[in-house]
Structure formats: structure tokens, C-alpha cells
């Protein structure tokens, strides 16, 4: 039996951990483990909005089902709504809760009476007053939440791979759970149980909505992992680390010993194990997302000149900690190691534009200059309002300010209308050539395939003002969606999966400009090769001709002498 809290010596069942002990005993399970007791203690004393992330197999659903029974034991008028990714999952939770009420002697008085709701979908407890809302109701996250009223909402694994693979899916899920606040009674509470599927997991965004996250990994984490957990790591685990428990050892050996965890790691793979058992997304995300901030070179970009060769580095001394950073954990901006050669004029400068139509998309734009195979991002951003005159003028001013030689426009949307509207405005402010670009390649694949090799070779230089403006210009958007409009959030979250981003306007514009210079450099290289071959041929021909004439001249001299 766990040690009782001093505040409730008169009634042991006021401590939820003791109730868990009774449930485990009834189910003929081994005594609850220290980790299970800690989860139970947190459930009892958690804030009104809490997230429990614990390693798979720890029994968090069992513990929470017991918690629902315990709350009904303390107050039969409590209304509980159980929500899961699927209706089947939520029904299983509700069914198990109902089973405990029917079987556990201490809960017999809570059995549904004749005339009360008694299904696995919704049931009442015996002593409760008649109400529109059942004592316990189960529903899938895509089901009908409205019309329910609840004192406690249990969100049990609402996020699974099938509803979180793409940004569109994640946004749909994020909107669905907002309905909880409409269902929750005043002074009610919400508890999430789950395992994050990606770094962009719903659970990772909940702190922005006022939730407290508590994490129980299967192994004691090292210092780097502790930093990644931030203040989310269970104090119980942290206390044991401080007392000298060995990093890498099981946190709950009564559930999974070291050998068992090793077998599961081999079965799940490193990234799968990191997600499911360590609640650590960094390994998985590092492999999944190919574009890294650390591959960029960040330095001031002059309007007309650049060094012949900026030298990339990832030296900690060059880390730029003062710039807004929306990259993945551990990914940072770095200034160059040095700048070699003279400062000379750019070979050219282009402005790329990805027009938006209506809705929440932006008109993305990017100014990219080129010198010696290095690409310099001088400006990048997004404009709301589609084809507005002010947007047309703003883009024209940007073109003039950067003395661009060419304007590129994505023509896939609007059938060339944007270009025709821009032409007269641009002609007045900065008369320059405009070209349309049309692509039939899947957008996500096109972006990654273009930017990844350029960034891996550290050929993309970014002005720090671009980073600062990228952050500043999204502040007008709702807090929960601001980051999605940022270029560098889009850059570090894109995959080749279709729909991986809900907004990609700024990144798409950057890809267009980079693609132009990549194609230009390839074409230029071919011309150079042909030129060199032609020059070599001419030289060899000259040598051959000279050789023939020299031979003829020698033969002529010999004949005359004889």
C-alpha cells in the first residue's frame, strides 16, 4: 500500500493512490508500481488542464479509468466525457469503467438503476439525479461533441498516426479539440492521455492553450534529453536522477526491465522507440525533416555586392542566439566562419512571387541574388489580400529596392491574371522582364528536391533582417497559427509527403528563385564546358595545321637543297 497523505488520515480512499491499489487487487494485477502511483498522484492533484505523456504499456488508460470511478465515488453527480481517436477506443474505455463499477464491491451502489442509461456509449450511475448528460459518455473525436456537458473530459489517445500525418490533418484535429471548451462545465477539467506522433504533435501545442504537460519516459534520460523535455519531465523522475539513478536504466523495471526495453527498441527501431517509450521526438524529426537552419549561412546581405566566398561553420561560438528561432529542437542559425576574397557585384538578382487567391493564403515573395554559386536571400515575406493594388505596388517597390533583373511569377493559379495586373504597376516603378513559371511536379517534392542540395552544400546565405521580418510580419495572425506562416517554420517542417504543410507560400517563393539560379548555373556550366571544348578543339586544330605546314616547309627545303 502506498504511503498515505497526511491531509486525509481519516479516510484512506480520499487518496486516489489507495483506490488504484484496490482496483489492481480486484483485477489480480501485481501491486501498482512507483511510476503508476506517481501518475495517479498527478491525476488527483493536476491543474484543470493537464496532459499525461507516459511510455506505452505503463497502464495510463487503466489508471485514468479508475480515476473516473473514483471521482464518481466521491461525487455521483460528476459528468465525464471520454473522447478518443476512434469511437471503438472511447467505447472500450467506457466499457472498462462500467465493468469496474459493476464488479468492485465498493462501487456497487453506483450501478445503473432501471430506467437509467446503461449502454457502453452512455450510462448513468445509480445515485445521480436525472440529467440530459449521462454520468459517462464515450465519443470519437470526429463524432458529435456538441450537446454534451461534462465536469471532466478524458481525451484518451485522440492523436494517432492516421489523423496526424499531415499538417492538414493536424489542423483538423486541433480545431476538433477546441470544442472541448464548449462542452466543459464551469470549473471543469480536461486531461489528455497520449503519445506524441511528431514534433508538431497536438500535445506539443497544448501548453500554448494553458495546459501543463507531464512526461514519464521508460528510461532515465541523459542531460540533453532532460533539456528537450524542458520543465515537462515528471519531478518523480527528475528527483531520482538527482539522487544518482543511472541514466539509461528503466524508470519502471517492474513493468519493463532493461532486457525487455532493449527488445522493444530493436523491434520498434530507434525513432519508433524514441517516440513510443521515451516521448522524445528529436530523433524521428531529425530524420524526417530534411531542411535544417544550421545548414544556412546567416550574414548581412548588401544590396549590390557580396564576398567571393563566405565560409560555413557550425562552431558554437558562431551560434546566433538572439534571432527568433522556430526550428526544431537543437537546430540553430550560425554566422559564417569567415569571408574570403573581395566584395564584388552580384551576377544577378531575381524576385519570385507565388500569388494567392482568396482565403488565408499569402502572396509569397523572395528576392535571391547570386554570386560565384552562392545564393543570397535578401528579402522574403508574405502579403495578404491577393491582387490588391497595394500588394502590386509593394512588390514593385521591392523589385526596385533590390534592383532585380527578372521577376518570376507562379502561373498555376489564376491563369496569368496576376502577371497582367502587375505589369503596368511594375513598368512605372521598375521596368524589368517578367516571366511565368508553371510546374506539374508535386509541390512538396519540388521544394525539398530544390532546396536540400543547395542547403546541404551551404550555398544559401540569409540576411538576419529576413529572419527578424519573418517573425515580425506574422504577429497579426492568431497566436496558434502564427508560426505556420513563417518561412523558417515552413522550411524546417516540410517533408515530401503531400499536404505536409498547410501554408507554404513563403517557402514556395524561395524555391522558385533558388530553382531559377540552379537552372541558370547548370546552363551556364554547360555553356562553359562547350566553350572550353570549342577552345580546346580550336587550339588542337591550330597545332595540327601548324604541324602540317611546318612539315611541308621542311620537305620543301630538303628538295631544294638536293
Query: Rough shape?
Result: elongated
C-alpha-based Rg, rounded: 32 Å
Beta-strand content: 15-25%
The side-by-side strand order for the widest beta sheet comes to: 3-4-2-5-6-1-7
Distance between the termini: 126 Å
Helix content: 40-55%
Largest sheet: 7 strands, mixed
Description:
This protein is α/β, with parallel strands linked by helices. The protein has 2 domains: 21-216, Rossmann fold; 293-521, 2-Layer Sandwich (Nucleotidyltransferase, domain 5), CATH 3.30.420.240. It has 18 helices and 16 strands. The chain has helices at 16-26, 34-45, 60-74, 87-103, 167-177, 180-183, 202-205, 223-229, 235-242, 258-268, 270-276, 282-288, 389-401, 417-429, 443-456, 464-472, 487-493, 505-561; strands spanning 49-54, 80-84, 122-123, 136-140, 150-156, 184-193, 212-216, 297-298, 305-311, 338-345, 348-354, 363-371, 374-383, 406-410, 433-437, 460-462. The strands form 3 sheets. A 7-stranded mixed sheet has the order 3-4-2-5-6-1-7. Strand 11 and strand 12 (363-371) form a beta hairpin. The chain starts with 15 loop residues before the first helix and ends with a helix. Mean pLDDT is 87; it is low at 1-8 and 558-562.
SSE map:
Elements lengths: L15 H11 L7 H12 L3 E6 L5 H15 L5 E5 L2 H17 L18 E2 L12 E5 L9 E7 L10 H11 L2 H4 E10 L8 H4 L6 E5 L6 H7 L5 H8 L15 H11 L1 H7 L5 H7 L8 E2 L6 E7 L26 E8 L2 E7 L8 E9 L2 E10 L5 H13 L4 E5 L6 H13 L3 E5 L5 H14 L3 E3 L1 H9 L14 H7 L11 H57 L1
Parallel strand pairs: 1-6, 1-7, 2-4, 2-5, 5-6, 8-16, 11-14, 13-16, 14-15
Antiparallel strand pairs: 3-4, 9-10, 11-12, 12-13
Amino acid at each position: 500500500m502506498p504511503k498515505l497523505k497526511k491531509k486525509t488520515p481519516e479516510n484512506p480512499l480520499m487518496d486516489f493512490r489507495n483506490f488504484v491499489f484496490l482496483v489492481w487487487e480486484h483485477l489480480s494485477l501485481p501491486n501498482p508500481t512507483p511510476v503508476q502511483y506517481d501518475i495517479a498522484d498527478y491525476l488527483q492533484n493536476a491543474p484543470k488542464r493537464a496532459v499525461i505523456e507516459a511510455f506505452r504499456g505503463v497502464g495510463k488508460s487503466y489508471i485514468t479509468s479508475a480515476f473516473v470511478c473514483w471521482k464518481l465515488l466521491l461525487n455521483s453527480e460528476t459528468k465525464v466525457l471520454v473522447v478518443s481517436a476512434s469511437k471503438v477506443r472511447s467505447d472500450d474505455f467506457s466499457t472498462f469503467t462500467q465493468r469496474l463499477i459493476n464488479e468492485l464491491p465498493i462501487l456497487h451502489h453506483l450501478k445503473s438503476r432501471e430506467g437509467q442509461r446503461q449502454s457502453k456509449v452512455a450510462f448513468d450511475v445509480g445515485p445521480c439525479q436525472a440529467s440530459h448528460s449521462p454520468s459517462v459518455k464515450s465519443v470519437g473525436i470526429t463524432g458529435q461533441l456538441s450537446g454534451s456537458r461534462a465536469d471532466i473530459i478524458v481525451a484518451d489517445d485522440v492523436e494517432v498516426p492516421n489523423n496526424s500525418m499531415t499538417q492538414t490533418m493536424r489542423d483538423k484535429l486541433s480545431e476538433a479539440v477546441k470544442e472541448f471548451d464548449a462542452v466543459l462545465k464551469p470549473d471543469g477539467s480536461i486531461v489528455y492521455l497520449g503519445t506524441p506522433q511528431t514534433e508538431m504533435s497536438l500535445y506539443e501545442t497544448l501548453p500554448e492553450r494553458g495546459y501543463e504537460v507531464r512526461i514519464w519516459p521508460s528510461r532515465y534520460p541523459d542531460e540533453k534529453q532532460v533539456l528537450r523535455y524542458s520543465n515537462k519531465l515528471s519531478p518523480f523522475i527528475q528527483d531520482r536522477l538527482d539522487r544518482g539513478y543511472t541514466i539509461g536504466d528503466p524508470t519502471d523495471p517492474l513493468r519493463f526491465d532493461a532486457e525487455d526495453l532493449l527488445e522493444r527498441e530493436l523491434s520498434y527501431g530507434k525513432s519508433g522507440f524514441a517516440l513510443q517509450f521515451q516521448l522524445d521526438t528529436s530523433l524521428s524529426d531529425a530524420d524526417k525533416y530534411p531542411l535544417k537552419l544550421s545548414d544556412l549561412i546567416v550574414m548581412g546581405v548588401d544590396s549590390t555586392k557580396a564576398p567571393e566566398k563566405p565560409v560555413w561553420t557550425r562552431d558554437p561560438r558562431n551560434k546566433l542566439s538572439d534571432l527568433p528561432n522556430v526550428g526544431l529542437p537543437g537546430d540553430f542559425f550560425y554566422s559564417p566562419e569567415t569571408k574570403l576574397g573581395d566584395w564584388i557585384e552580384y551576377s544577378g538578382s531575381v524576385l519570385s512571387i507565388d500569388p494567392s487567391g482568396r482565403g488565408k493564403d499569402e502572396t509569397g515573395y523572395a528576392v535571391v541574388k547570386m554570386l560565384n554559386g552562392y545564393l543570397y536571400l535578401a528579402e522574403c515575406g508574405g502579403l495578404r489580400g491577393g491582387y490588391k493594388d497595394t500588394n502590386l505596388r509593394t512588390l514593385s517597390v521591392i523589385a526596385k529596392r533590390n534592383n532585380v533583373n527578372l521577376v518570376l511569377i507562379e502561373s498555376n493559379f489564376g491563369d496569368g491574371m496576376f502577371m497582367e495586373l502587375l505589369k503596368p504597376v511594375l513598368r512605372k516603378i521598375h521596368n524589368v522582364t517578367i516571366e511565368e513559371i508553371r510546374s506539374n511536379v508535386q509541390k512538396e517534392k519540388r521544394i525539398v528536391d530544390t532546396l536540400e542540395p543547395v542547403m546541404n552544400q551551404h550555398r544559401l546565405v540569409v540576411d538576419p533582417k529576413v529572419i527578424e521580418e519573418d517573425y515580425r510580419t506574422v504577429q497579426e495572425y492568431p497566436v496558434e497559427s502564427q508560426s505556420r506562416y513563417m518561412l523558417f517554420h515552413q522550411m524546417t517542417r516540410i517533408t515530401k509527403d503531400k499536404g505536409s504543410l498547410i501554408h507554404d507560400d513563403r517557402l514556395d517563393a524561395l524555391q522558385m528563385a533558388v530553382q531559377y539560379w540552379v537552372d541558370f548555373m547548370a546552363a551556364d556550366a554547360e555553356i562553359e564546358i562547350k566553350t572550353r571544348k570549342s577552345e580546346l578543339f580550336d587550339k588542337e586544330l591550330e597545332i595540327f595545321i601548324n604541324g602540317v605546314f611546318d612539315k611541308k616547309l621542311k620537305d620543301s627545303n630538303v628538295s631544294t637543297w638536293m
